[in-house]
Design brief:
Elements (H helix, E strand, L loop, with lengths): L7 E5 L3 H13 L5 E4 L2 H10 L3 E7 L7 H9 L9 E5 L4 H9 L4 E4 L4 H11 L22 E7 L6 H11 L8 E7 L3 H9 L5 E5 H9 L4 E6 L5 E6 L9 H4 L2 E5 L5 H12 L4 E2 L8 E5 L5 H7 L3 E7 L2 H7 L3 E6 L4 E2 L4 E6 H6 L1 H20 L1 H12 L9 H9 L13 H14 L8 H4 L3 H6 L2 E3 L7 E3 L6 E2 L11 E8 L2 E6 L3 E6 L13 E7 L2 E7 H4 L12 E9 L2 E9 L1 E8 L4 E2 L13 E7 L2 E6 L1 H5 L2 H9 L1
Length: about 650
């Protein structure tokens, strides 16, 4: 029995471009009766107004009222407690999947998802198809020649080119495996790769290292045998908008795209923006001012072009270079500039393959290492192979010249150093679990099987023309910091006063300045919190800066005003009003006019200070409004509003 294609589906997603893409995907699987909602509050209104909604598909991270809160509300509401609910989320790690299901979600699909993934889940929710379960450990089929038939999954990025070169060399007769035959499966995104690996539909995969570690932590029987490459990703910024000092303001309070939550791209972007003095991350536990959103890699240029509020993206090549060539983006940095020689994708096999067919895995690993060396030494031919392997249906529009530039960039991808170094994996694990609070720690010695790389990474030829042999490099990646000028304090500041003290706020954090108006008090709030105002139908919390800094209170007068600023919140940026004695001027402050703040002696916490500007009018204290507001009291204020 087929589902009614006209059944009404409530699609809840705050990002307009993403909502359009998801509606298009629903149309591709036959559903066109779509009701759209921009957040959980809007969804509750739509559910109440339209009684015949048959399915809710909701994003998790949204402002005002998120998808998890919506799910809890529905399960506690008599009218909606049994209404099917599918959580579509950028939180692709296993912990969030389990949390959603425990709260009553009928299904969870991690962004970015494909039409096939969505169709399967909708069918499962309505009982038309049984959920896919992991296959029995049958192992791959044997060919008539007694070779193991290896099925390897990958996606359309240069990170996986070594697999393409190996496939090409086997097909051309340059390589003649004795123990295996090769079948490569190009998949539309990371979720299909993960699902195929988890369900035993493939024998191995080229997969994101953090994603593989997350699968292993939840008992999926896989082991890492080799790095797929080092370096190879690029960060680009939107060509729309002015990029000038202070550079961090270009990214602040905007969306930034990553390919998956459990990715090295998420980690590197977090490292980069943190070093710029920003608060990056997906919406959730902590307030962020650079909001990471998960987008399919091949769709990133389109998303960036359509959304002026998106600042950029970090992704594997050649997607970033394509966006630059198309005039959509400008290069921000290569991933090696943040962490030199970093790993990203890894080669994993299911454990039963390693146990039953070690000769085939060893031969595959050795040939893959050789293919990586071949890419280094034959860039022109590797670029031609890449076009055929990564874009066989000519949908992406890859050209050999573009691939040649990507492969020859001295700071770009390398494929001649594939030995799996545990120290590098520990760096990833430590940063993501400790500083980003995502994923779970695993025993890396149990996860990584180096016996195949120990043999494959024997002494190998150096670059063409070197005329000598050298051991394949096995060293750990080297960590680098960013150009500190990117964290510049130079720029325009709005100057306000509290008593005799002058303070400065970055002008791009200021939304408007208004006179005093009626403030509605709320109970059980900190003393400096005055209440909320209704500004053009927006409820905005207001705090008194004298009270915030522990200064003596003063009577409000005609010069007293409210500065409305944009600050980071749990579900993205939000507006807060601050009451000050007076606003005086807007000034341009040069970096050489700013000194680091003292550690003690200021009315404000020194962590909230950008610096002390020595101007002709006197010393001006430059405030980091986000850090000033990023305390538990400010979070409570935001929730109260």
């Amino acid at each position: 029995m087929a589902l009614d294609p006209q059944m009404k589906i409530l699609l809840v997603e705050d990002a307009g471009t993403m909502r359009k893409m998801e509606a298009r995907i629903l149309g591709q699987v036959g559903f066109t009766n779509i009701v759209e909602a921009k957040d959980g509050n809007d969804a509750m209104e739509k559910l109440t107004a339209e009684k015949d909604i048959a399915l809710v598909i909701s994003d998790w991270s949204m402002p005002n009222f998120d998808g998890y809160q919506l799910l809890q509300w529905m399960r506690g509401h008599e009218s909606f407690k049994n209404l099917p609910f599918l959580m579509a989320t950028g939180h692709g790690d296993k912990a969030y999947v389990a949390k959603a299901k425990e709260a009553g979600a009928n299904g969870v699909v991690a962004k970015p998802f494909t039409p096939d993934e969505l169709k399967v889940l909708i069918d499962e929710i309505f009982g038309l198809k049984q959920a896919v379960v992991a296959k029995k450990e049958e192992g791959p089929k044997m060919s008539a020649e007694g070779k193991v038939h290896l099925k390897m999954a990958h996606i359309q990025i240069t990170d996986h080119l070594a697999l393409g070169v190996l496939k090409h060399q086997v097909a051309a007769g340059r390589k003649n495996p004795q123990h295996f035959s090769l079948d490569t499966l190009c998949m539309p995104g990371w979720n299909p790769v993960q699902n195929a690996l988890e369900n035993g539909e493939v024998d191995g995969a080229f997969i994101l290292a953090p994603m593989a570690m997350d699968l292993f932590s939840y008992g999926v029987p896989i082991k890492l045998v080799l790095f797929a490459h080092r370096n190879g990703s690029i960060c680009v910024r939107n060509k729309t908008g002015k990029y000038a000092k202070p550079y961090q303001q270009f990214f602040k309070h905007k969306t930034f795209y990553i390919p998956h939550k459990m990715s090295i791209h998420n980690m590197l972007a977090h490292m980069y923006f943190t070093q710029m003095g920003l608060r990056p991350g997906v919406a959730g536990k902590e307030a962020v001012n650079v909001l990471f959103d998960v987008v399919p890699p091949v769709a990133m240029p389109e998303f960036l072009k359509e959304n002026s509020e998106a600042s950029g993206f970090l992704v594997a090549e050649p997607i970033g270079s394509r966006a630059i060539t198309a005039g959509i983006a400008e290069r921000q940095f290569l991933s090696s500039e943040v962490w030199q020689d970093h790993p990203c994708c890894v080669v994993v096999f299911r454990e039963e393959i390693l146990t039953k067919y070690p000769e085939a895995v060893q031969e595959f690993t050795t040939m893959l290492v050789d293919s990586g060396i071949y890419i280094r030494d034959h860039v022109d031919e590797a670029a031609e192979i890449a076009v055929a392997f990564l874009d066989p249906e000519k949908k992406i529009g890859l050209e050999p010249g573009l691939l040649r530039n990507v492969l020859s960039d001295p700071q770009g991808i390398t494929t001649d150093n594939l030995y799996p170094v545990l120290e590098d994996l520990e760096t990833i694990q430590d940063y993501m679990t400790s500083k980003m609070e995502i994923g779970r720690r695993i025993n890396l010695a149990e996860f990584v099987d180096t016996r195949f790389a120990d043999i494959a990474c024997k002494p190998l030829p150096t670059a063409v023309g070197a005329g000598q042999e050298a051991a394949a490099p096995r060293g750990a990646a080297r960590k680098l910091g960013i150009d500190q000028s990117l964290a510049s304090r130079e720029g325009k500041y709005l100057i306000f006063t509290l008593g005799k003290e002058r303070y400065g706020l970055g002008i791009l954090d200021v939304r408007e300045i208004i006179g005093l108006m009626t403030i509605h008090e709320l109970p059980q709030m900190p003393p400096f919190f005055k209440g909320v105002i209704n500004l053009r139908d927006k409820v905005i919390p207001v705090m008194d800066m004298r009270g915030k800094f522990g200064m003596e209170s003063a009577e409000y007068d005609s010069r007293t005003c409210i500065i409305v600023v944009e600050v980071s919140g749990l579900t993205g940026s939000r507006l807060i009003g601050i009451i000050v004695d007076a606003v005086s001027e807007v000034v341009i402050i040069k970096e050489q006019e700013v000194e680091d703040p003292p550690k003690f002696g200021s009315a404000a916490d020194s962590q909230c200070l950008l610096g002390m500007a020595k101007l002709a009018e006197g010393v001006t204290i430059l405030l980091d409004i986000d850090r000033l507001m990023h305390i538990q009291e400010a979070v409570l204020i935001g929730e109260a509003a």
